[in-house]
Amino acid sequence: MKNNSPELSFEFFPARTPKGVESLANVHAELAKFDPAFFSVTFGAGGSTHDGSFNAVKTMLDAGSTAGAHITCVGCSREYIKTVVQSYLDIGVNRFVVLRGDLPGGMVERGYFKHAVDLIRFIRENFGDQLHLDVAAYPDFHPESKSPAQELEHFKQKVDAGANSAITQYFFNADSYFAYLDEISRMGIDIPITPGIMPISNYATLVRFSDACGAELPRWIRARLEQYQDDQASLTAFGLDVVSHLCLDLLDNGVEGLHFYSLNRVNPVKEICQRIGFEFDQIAGVTQ
Fold it and tell me: Across-strand partners of 96?
């Protein structure tokens, strides 16, 4: 890749145990050798993982990386959101991935904020333009949307409320992404929309994720994964081929970045990035 190559970014979830914290630090150190544009760390509904998320982001900042934080609004009060955003600003974070979030089991009421657009407006009203706000985009459409037109209108509302850029839900059909961009462009929206990339390493997990979030898992991929579910070597090899070809298709058609849902794992992401031409610095990385 040349110096003007598309940018990489990597997403983590916060570790819940001391061993997990150590493992995440090692994963971050390895993936930092790709010199990504930023890392991001997810955030549980109602702030359920806030401490872990905050500590992970701070550790990455202290190690010399650029890191952003997810903010979800389900179950959160206005005061809590202001406190959380300010706590990140105080340590130098100004990039946030703003999401509605999913209702945890047993939760009936969403709280003050009903949708991501409500949270975006609230953050802009209270913190102005000093923040970079990413939002979610759904090329395969959100499972709760009643129609593609409604989905696109919801996205436009988030942009009008102050979103700077977007990261898509993962997908395995590049045509759905490019068709989505065409629809967005016809609506007069021109913010960057980075493809979200999910490595394939486990059949049951991927099927569960896809069914829950509405991401289409093409029948031919599902059938192969089902065939290989008891043959990890074959499943891994097949998954690497599928996702690498998807990334190359996207890059060949001019995407400006790839955002990897790493699931806190190094090897699948590292292998794909190297296959598609990104340089991995064996020496560079984070400051220990």
Answer: 69, 133
